[in-house]
Amino acid sequence: xxIAYAGTMIDPAxxxxxxxxxxxxxxxTLVTTHTPLIAQVLFYGAVLSAIMSTASATLLAPxxxxxxxxxxxxxxxxxxxxxxxxxxxxxxxxxxxxxAFALNSESSIFKMVESAxxxxxxxxFIPLVCGILWRRATxxxxxxxxxxxxxxxIMVEVMIGEASxxxxxxxxxxxxxxxxxxxxxxxxxxxxxxxxxPGFLHEHAAHVHGEAHPHHQEHPHGN
Length: 223
What we know:
By secondary structure, the protein is mainly alpha-helical. The chain has 9 helices and no strands.
């Protein structure tokens, strides 16, 4: 932001007029017209590196999450080799979806990134926070938060849009919070009936370890 603002002061005739039309091109134009070749090489190399790093992480995150938390849960007997193939297939599918959206969208990169984080805010933020910090959070509450938040956000976005007194993604966030609380406190029809008690994961891990190594026991000295 500092470099872009400095560019409008350095060359207000050209860069100043880009604020309202192509603000994302201020810094590249400044680098191209006012820096030596070596600085341009370093700048565009850093930009491409940041883009590729961000794109790879953004594609891997939903692919691994979908494969690990949904597909493995639906097919618990899946072997590691098949799971790796499924994960790679999920990566290809998500990449194709993102590419198709980018090619058919007329929005700028900033608007597309903003829209992506609206989805996370409306559908994933509340389940993640409550799953970490609230002991009474349940699977049913998380599902109600996800679907309620996404559906309410999309409805307000489509039906009201910019005329909404509250940003549509914040409306979805509120509905997601209500769905999380209501779904966790109501009688449970989906998922675990009760949250797991503290220390459950440690006890379960110790039990599995004992089954895997039944003869691995300590013996008194001298026997």
